[in-house]
Design brief:
Order of helices and strands: HHHHHHHHHHEHEEHEEEEH
Strand content: 5-15%
Structural class: alpha/beta
Length: about 280
Amino acid sequence: MKDAKQDTDESRNENDSAPDTIDAFFNRLGNTADDLPKRLKQFADFIAANPDRVAVSTVAELAEGADVQPSAVMRFCQEMGFTGFSQMQKLFRSGYSRKWPDYATRLDKLREHGAESPSALLAEFVEVGRASLENLMTTVEPRSLQQAVDVLARAETIHMIGFRRAFPVTSYLAYAFEKMDVPAVLHSGLANINMEHLIRPNDAVIAVTFAPYTQMTLDIVARARETGADIVAITDMVTSPLARFKAIQLLVSDLDVGAFRALSASLSLAITLAVSVGAQRNRIN
C-alpha cells in the first residue's frame, strides 16, 4: 500500500514532467503564469506573444527580447518541467512549421520592394491578414469554441464588453446578434454611462481585450463574475488577466503593420461565434 508521502511525490513528479505538445505547453503556461515570479512572468508573457521565436532563437536572444537575464530563461524552462532550454526548444521546433507560418520573411520582402505607396501598404495588410487567419486555426481550440457557443446559446442576455482597439469586435458582435434576434447588450462606455448593473446571474459576457489590456474591461468582468455570469474571453495570450476570472478563452493574435492592426482574425472569430450562437439558439428554441 502506498503511503501519503509516496502519493505526494508521484503527484509532484507528474506535475513536473515536461509537456509533450505545444498545446500542452500553453495550457500549463496559462494555468501557472500568475504564480510565477516577476521576471519569469515577464518572460512568460513574451513567449506567449512570440511563440515562433523559441524555435529559432538562442537563450541570449530570447532574454534580450524579453528584457530579462538569461538565467531567468533557464529558470522558466525548469518551472515548465523541462531539463533545460534545449529540451523546450526541441518541442517548439517539432511543431514550428505546422503552427506558425513564416510571415516575417514575406513581410521583409514587401518592405524592401514596396515604396511608401497605398498599393504597397495594401499588400502588407493583406499579407498580415492572411497570416493572422492561418494562425487563428491553431490558436483557437475547437473544444473551447464549442464550450463558448454552448454557454452563450443558453444565456438569457449576452453582454459585449471591449474598448479601444477591441471595440470594433464587440460592436460587430452586437450588430450580428441584432440581425439574429439574440438578446444582447453592447457596453460602449459612451458618455461614461455604466451599464454593468444590467448583468444578471443567468447572463453571459463576451469580454474582448488585447495587450495592453484595458482596465475598464477587467473591472466590469470582475463584477460580472461576482454576479455569477459566465465569461467568454476573446484575447491574445494564455497569460491574459482574463484567465483569472475562469473565462473560456478564445485566443487570437492579429499581426500589425507598423502600429496598426487590421483585426482580420478577430473579426472572423467574432462572426463565427455569433452565427454559431444564433444557430444553436434556434435549435434549442
